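tool_call predict_complex ligand=magnesium ion
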Amino acid sequence: MAAETLRHNCGVMGIWNDDNAAELVFHGLYSLQHRGQESAGIVSADDGRFYRHFGMGTLTQVFSGPDTLKKLKGRSAVGHNRYSTTGSSSQYNIQPLVAELRDGPVAIAHNGNLVNTQKIRRQLQEDGAIFHSTTDSEIIVHLMARSKHNMVRDKLLEAIQKVEGAYSITVLSDHALYAARDPYGWRPLCIGRKGDAWGVASETCAFDLLGYEYIQDVNPGELVVLNGSGMKVIRFAEPKRTFHCIFEHVYFSRPDSRVAGEYIDKYRRRMGKNLSEEHPVEDADIVISVPDSSNTAALGYASRSGTRFEMGLIRNHYVGRTFIQPTQTMREMGVRLKFNPVGGVLKDRKVVVVEDSIVRGTTLKKLATLLRKAGAKELHVRVSSPPIRFPCYYGMDFPSKSELIANGKSEEEIRQHIGVDSLGYLSVEGLLASVPQSEGVGYCTACFTGEYPIPLRDDEESGSKLRYKNANGDETS
Ligand code: 5GP
Ligand code: MG
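tool_result ok
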């Protein structure tokens, strides 16, 4: 059971002190739908009472019933989109989690993955705790419940100092909205404002839709308290070198979201430019993307190489992400459902196909066949990230090592498997040169390099004897 909970990335959203807070959270989560389509939930608070609605599926599926949002009364609310995982699709895991603590109720929405939960969970269970879900997020609730402190702020501070790993969380109590980010800053989290109202969101694109102003990121190791007295920032851990997930910049976050004040669009264009420098294609006729995730990188490639950008593939926007399909057959069908080539653009052309990442290789293998059938003369695939060879323990839903196409295969073997004329990946150096670098800022590149910044402590119970390297590069298990 534990292994099922190891992979999830999600979207979180919170509003404090605004009319129809639940409706605002709904719309914020709508902008964050790309961060998770497996389940959704919103909890609102009104005068000491908490209201909750949740379910499996996308936001519009979960909130399709008449008046579901109206029933979530109050001027504050938190919500959560849960990402598709490899098997833990259970309604017990839907967030936000709600708990009745000694001094009142709290709701908690968590994005990230904790790495030391099994030990804590076992200890808590030995002490009599009853868990309702398999999510690691519930551990934080239990730790808060056991805290001897009276204030939610102090309970939360105590709880997060006991857990390790990736967490960007927002907690709602009757008295405040809280936002906390782990000391390494794996997952994003930011604060927005509109007059006396406050917002917390995984990405800034959620604030744009609500007309909230993006104020700042929650810095790694900080707890932000938002209430009638305004915003208070509490540092709970010494600043460390960060391990921002670089895959957020490659794929996961929206390009119209900002990090440290800059659009992710800019980083992605740089990835495309650096990719073009590292792997040029001579005399190419056109550059195409695999919409939508590689659009921006493809534009960067096209502008640096001086090759025309074209829309060679049209995406059906009503098909969910291919990853969600549980079986390989359905996944393959999904690719065909999702993309259709534009023959007139491709016919007799030497085509550069820019893709943001190759995971299992399913998308590109299928696309290569489709693009050739549509008349493309040559296909040169350029990937704006390095080969993904290692699983992620901090929130990305990558499959097991054996399913990753780059695990144990050379680039030439991958090229043959996909069936294209050439293949080039952006180097780790090229990728790091595309994202902001400053003192104290570092990135987690474990999926490409196998260098895991924090060791996974729980694998003994999940049954998998995974090997990993710690921050010093020592291999351990
Ligand atoms: P593949 O078909 O090689 O298994 O996956 C590559 C495709 O999936 C790319 O188009 C990429 O944009 C997308 N992708 C990469 N990582 C993820 C992920 O974590 N979740 C989802 N849903 N798609 C991903
Ligand atoms: Mg894609």
